[in-house]
Write a structure and sequence with these properties.
Blueprint (H helix, E strand, L loop, with lengths): L1 H18 L8 H25 L5 E2 L2 E2 L2 H24 L6 E5 L5 H29 L17 H29 E5 L15 E9 H4 L6 H5 L1 H14 L8 H5 L6 H11 L8 H14 L7 E3 L7 E13 L3 H7 L2 H25 L14 E4 L1 H35 L2 H24 L6 H26 L6 H27 L8 H31 L53 H6 L4 H6 L2
Parallel strand pairs: 3-4
Antiparallel strand pairs: 1-2, 5-7, 5-8, 6-7
Length: 613
């Protein structure tokens, strides 16, 4: 039987845990996983046996108390987490490399989201398992929802296994994100980025020397060597190459006006050799600047003596605009701005290797002066501000559903209602982001601000419905949800209508940020109202039956057609139930041992008049 198989598996795991450390290489983690798996088997058998009464543990409060059951279940879950975590740690650390630049990779965020999803869902699965095993209501999960007859215990055992698998899956995903995945500096590969005409393009620069590596670095002496001069000359040629991140129109015109190219041409016109000897480089550059005043801003010296060159700079035209509506669109789309910056970062990082493909006489790449380079555009400062802003907004968007679930759980005191609200809020956030993508609304500063504000306000719709459902007098889910609709539906609809009316004028605004702000308000309010209806639908299916604390069983009577026929006892086919009663009063039949007339004759209370449909 299953107990014999479990005992055999535990014995095999014990043998593996003793032998694996002796194998060459010392498989310590595998041995730990074997010991934990043995504990998991014992825990699963013990937990199931406690719930079914085959094993009895006595404590000061009695036999198999809830506290004892919860401790055994927690130890079993911890053993399952130890098995999955130890086996995941056997994978080589950093074997999955993801580029990290500006924003976290989507794959990494998905791993963290799925891990959190597994951990969050462990609690309702465990509560449902407790309700099905013990045939009582736990956290809003009613025993009436459990399969009837002999199927109840096997179904509860399936929930026990599912809770263990959920916790194990969360540990595997989290360990993968923390141990297997390695986030390294890298650059995302984008398709061809859009360009504007060169006369509207932003003016940026690329520089090498002390200006790029800080005052404490020895940048100036590097520029004076002959190899450094050749590298800077080849860098000018790379700026005019096809894979250069500068504006294509400027590239077709021969490339930017590069300082080192102009210096080499000037030396050639004066029949002077290039590259210049190191001791004469600074004086030669000073003579060149005196002859060509337009290059005075392209080179910097250590001090007023002009005895050492500190940095050189090249002014270029970028692919994006510096004025017009294109700038507003770029500022509203930080991902696009980050793509432009990634292109520059990738080009600058690959530049030392690129120039060595042109001239193999250069020193090793580790000694390249091009490693001390930087690029700059006025928009990069805006991008850094937007990234910091979006990190805060994303944290708020993620935390809002969680804190809302906790608030609903505190005030409603029902696990089922809290998790139904959480699922609706997560679905609401995902739907809104998807609709924004479909409607081509970039997630800019104004849009993100509107998103965080409106989602926080729209949570009120679900909270009001949850409170109304909680205090409904009906015992049937359908009538509880219907009562909540009648009590709170008009106020929620009026609140949504006034919000839509208030933001509608923004849709006619000429400024793009204001128009997008209004669009986000419109989408969030509409989607929130729709998901409030979905929340009621969920409560109709899985909502708690007994929601009023202190209510007696005769205060929570089901509808008359729910009491007489027991689906678990009925044979296949159909049944007709007819109830002839008065058209007033609480029309309930109650339990089998309560006379039908008693339920109908009981006088109504004032609270029933409020909630009665």
């Amino acid at each position: 039987g299953p107990y014999q198989l479990a005992r055999g598996g535990a014995a095999m795991c014990a043998a593996l845990s003793a032998l694996l450390p002796l194998v060459e290489g010392g498989h310590f983690l595998e041995a730990v996983a074997s010991v934990a798996f043995m504990a998991l088997l014992v825990g699963l058998i013990g937990t199931h046996s406690m719930y079914t009464g085959r094993v009895v543990l006595y404590s000061g409060d009695g036999a198999n108390t809830p506290t004892t059951r919860y401790l055994v279940l927690g130890a079993t879950t911890a053993a399952a987490a130890a098995v999955s975590g130890a086996l995941t740690l056997t994978v080589r650390a950093g074997s999955w490399v993801l580029p990290l630049h500006t924003f976290l990779p989507t794959q990494y965020l998905l791993l963290l989201f799925l891990a959190a999803f597994c951990f969050i869902n462990w609690l309702p699965i465990a509560a449902m398992m407790e309700a099905w095993y013990c045939n009582n209501t736990v956290g809003g999960f009613a025993a009436e929802d459990a399969p009837h007859g002999p199927r109840r215990v096997p179904s509860a055992l399936a929930l026990l296994l599912l809770s263990v698998l959920t916790a194990s899956g969360g540990v595997v995903l989290l360990t993968t994100a923390m141990h297997v995945v390695s986030l390294e500096d890298g650059y995302s590969h984008h398709a061809k980025l859009p360009e504007v005409p060169v006369d509207r393009a932003e003016r940026c620069y690329v520089a090498w020397g002390r200006v790029a590596v800080g005052e404490s670095a020895q940048g100036a002496p590097l520029l004076a060597t002959k190899s450094a001069q050749l590298e800077l000359l080849h860098a000018c040629e790379q700026l005019a190459a096809a894979d250069s991140p500068i504006n294509s129109e400027e590239r077709r015109d021969g490339g930017p006006d590069c300082f080192m190219s102009a210096f080499a041409s000037w030396r050639d016109e004066n029949l002077a050799p290039f590259p210049v000897p190191s001791d004469a480089f600074a004086s030669s550059v000073a003579d060149f600047v005196r002859a060509r005043r337009e290059y005075a801003s392209s080179v910097g010296f250590e001090d007023e003596s002009l005895t050492a060159v500190a940095w050189v700079r090249v002014l270029v035209r970028a692919k994006f605009a510096y004025k017009g509506t294109e700038v507003l669109q770029l500022l509203a789309d930080p991902n696009m701005m980050a793509a432009y910056k990634d292109e520059w970062d990738a080009w600058l990082a690959a530049l030392p290797g690129s120039v060595r493909e042109m001239d193999d006489s250069l020193p090793p790449e580790s000694d390249s002066v091009l490693r001390f380079g930087m690029h700059g555009c006025p928009k990069w400062g805006v991008l850094a501000t937007e990234v910091a802003f979006f990190n805060g907004v994303f944290t708020a968007v993620i935390a809002t559903p969680v804190f809302s679930m906790v608030a609903i759980g505190v005030f409603v005191q029902s696990l089922v209602i809290s998790y139904a609200a959480l699922y609706c809020l997560v679905g609401m956030v995902v739907t809104i982001l998807g609709l924004m993508h479909v409607c081509a609304i970039p997630l800019g500063v104004a849009e993100a601000l509107a998103l965080s504000l409106v989602i926080g306000m729209s949570v009120d719709y679900i909270i009001h419905l949850a409170h109304a459902y909680k205090h409904s007098l009906f015992a049937d889910r359908y009538f509880k949800s219907r009562a909540a609709t009648f009590v709170r539906g008009s106020s929620i609809g009026a609140a949504a209508a006034t919000t839509l009316a208030a933001v509608s004028p923004l849709l006619l605004a000429r400024l793009l940020p204001l128009r997008n702000f209004g669009m986000v308000f419109l989408l969030v309010t509409t989607v929130s109202l729709a998901f409030a209806v979905c929340f009621l639908t969920l409560l109709m299916v899985v909502g708690p039956l007994r929601t009023r604390s202190g209510a007696a069983d005769d205060d929570l009577r089901p509808m008359p057609w729910d009491a007489s026929v027991d689906p678990s006892l009925a044979s296949s086919g159909w049944a007709l139930q007819v109830d002839i009663g008065e058209a007033y009063g609480l029309h309930g039949a109650g339990c089998a041992d309560v006379p039908h007339d008693e339920g109908r004759a009981r006088p109504r209370r004032e609270e029933e008049d409020v909630e009665m449909l």
